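Following up on my earlier thread - several people asked me to post the actual chain instead of describing it. Fair enough. Here it is, all 592 residues.
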Amino acid sequence: MKATEALARYLPGFRTLLDYQRAWLRDDLIAGLVVSAILVPAGMGYAEAAGLPAVTGLYSTIVPLLIYALFGPSRIMVLGPDSGLAALIAAAVLAPAGGESPERAVALGSGLALVTGVTCAVLGLTRFGFITELLSKPVRVGYTNGIALTVLITQLPKLCGFSVKANGVVEASLGFVRGAIEGKSKPEALGLGLGSLLLILGLRRVAPKVPGVLLAVVISTLVVTALEWQSRLVVVGAVPRGLPLPSLPALSADDLMQLLVAGVGIALVAFADTSVLSRTFAARNGYRVDPNRELIALGAANFTSGMFSGFPISSSSSRTPVAESAGSRTQLTGVTGAFLITMLLLVAPGLLKNLPSAALAAVVIAAALRIFDGQALLLFYRARRTDLVLALFGFSAVAFVGVIPGIAATVAVSLLDFVRRAWRPHDAVLGRAQGVKGYHDLRRYPEAKEIPGLLLYRWDAPLFFANADTFRTRVLAEVDGASCKVRWVLIAAEPITDIDSTAAEMLEELLAELATRQVDLTFAELKDPVKDRLLRYGLQRPARAPTAKGEPAQPGAPLDDTSFFPTIGVAVKAFLAQNAVEWTDWEDLPGG
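Reply from S.P.:
Thanks for posting it. Predicted structure:
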């Protein structure tokens, strides 16, 4: 039992196997069949875009799918060659290959995958996955919507039967419009593409359990075969037969050193892409993923890709939604896809040769429409407009600048927005409202009464360098503007989760300024770790000069436990005991 639990803990795929339900089998098998029809042409196309033989795209798909099914925390993630990595791989491989034999380029691509895999694994083992904590919901929504637009625009030319070479959404859009105006669209391709798209979307709406994607792929292939449109349309074509044996690429130490920087960069790009997609689909399907395990699984998948003559891989923002839309329930979808691609290479490499690219474009477009999250945008609009702005910024950045720069820019803007909110946080002067427990914001409870001589002030943020002066200014303004002489400033400090050295310096200055007004500064409900840190700063209370009423001077002393109270109620009782003020709490009245 202990061995089984250990395997289930470290191998999510084994856990899924233990909990597998027979009702999931049909959906997983169908989804695997559908995804394999996408993986074959996509893998071959991305391999060529990376400057490598097309068949290496299939080698980069089969074993990584199996490895991720075992190690990967996401239940439906589909790994494989990715368009976002193609340019990076080409830049790292083509120049060192120098136009030599394809074997040299394959070896460099495999070496790059090994470096990428080791980097991801090391980052996962050192728990670098915390970086995903910066990927807030607005960032994820902006990312997925930006990807949806990018995929949609880039697939439109294929839907119409022609191709466009472009970098980015703008160029792709202009290329599509230009091609349509110039009459490059082919009626046969457009008919098959639109028909497939309508079939998928229609069945998704009226009969969601019917595998519309699979039907579209099969019907379009049969139509091309029956009408002999192979010469008039772009089709997948036959794939090479056979599988490579596992081996280390024939590279020198100098080659690996040259690939190191590129491999680390690709690892970060792949993880950023994979982590966003993994968290998005986990949230939509009601489970959680460990980002460190995601890194380790991505590393293992890339390493094995390099061992089987493949190149670096990542998640797929188009194929994973296809798997979801086809009904994928577990990692068995990826295993099924790997098995079918293997059988395709060994037994029937010509099976998909008449599958039209227009139908594949329809499948990808349908998946893109599915991942677009409009409901989240409406929620942001109703609940928090700044989240809407962040999501739209992320959408625009990912779509028009690129995935990784877009994510990085949106995370940076998110952090700036957090600082902005903490810079000018909500604050309140508190009082006692009749019949209501506790102390409440006078703006929300205008009938509430303040205790004479006590300014009860709440600050709803950590105290740090950016907002320290604002805190000081607001406290002094409330003291100077009070309707009666303030004797204590009591900070309701429960929301203050941290105080940095700049804020501590400000508090010491505030103590001095309040002392000139004969006012004491005290705290209630300050968290113990924050209190301990504040005491370690050694804040010095200034000496109190003699008053006009002849009260003796009071020497200065460090801030100590006498300035802190566990609750507001205890602090109020202490204030009332030390100061002769007229105050009757409603709870002390008969029937209170």
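The chain has a mean pLDDT of 87. That should answer part of your original question.
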